[in-house]
Amino acid sequence: MTNEKKSGSPKGESIYLAIGFLRRPHGVMGEMIMDLHTDFPERIKPGRKVYLGDTHESATLGSVRAHANGMLVTIRGLETPEAVGRFRNHWVYVKSSEVPSLPQGQVYKYELIGLQVIDDAGNPLGELTEVLETGANDVYIVRDEAGKEILLPAIPEVILKVDMDSKVITVHLIDGLIP
Known about the structure:
Elements (H helix, E strand, L loop, with lengths): L2 H4 L9 E11 L4 E6 L12 E4 L4 E11 L2 E6 L5 H4 L5 E6 L20 E4 L4 E9 L6 E5 L5 E5 L5 E5 L4 E4 L8
Parallel strand pairs: 7-12
Antiparallel strand pairs: 1-2, 1-6, 2-5, 3-4, 3-6, 4-5, 7-8, 8-9, 9-10, 11-12
């Protein structure tokens, strides 16, 4: 993966990836309950630079510890429930340029957005515009030039090949998926 692909959007601004969601303050020491929204919770460590809320306010995590299905986190410099309370119900982001590269042949989901999708006969189906996370498997939303959408389950029987070099995903349309 090159730095160019990780540097941000085509216009050059940063791409922010959600890693958690701050629920509410917990206790009297400025901890907050954070739901996890990452496949890599082990990367959420004290000292990690994060960006909070829609304005992507820069912050640094203080303490980090497991709690129920999520984590309890503190934000450096904010040591009371009142101080951290302003981040209640805010998303926690990292910049895509600050995440480690994946092993060869693996990609982050956000890197798939914008790839062209063709069927196994070479017919263009459109552009992948969104990846929905469901309980069973992800679903790729592909939109053609007319705005028509196709929903493709991200399963091996459907997603045949992802070619990041040519920016093309080759799929096999099974019954019920034909546009």
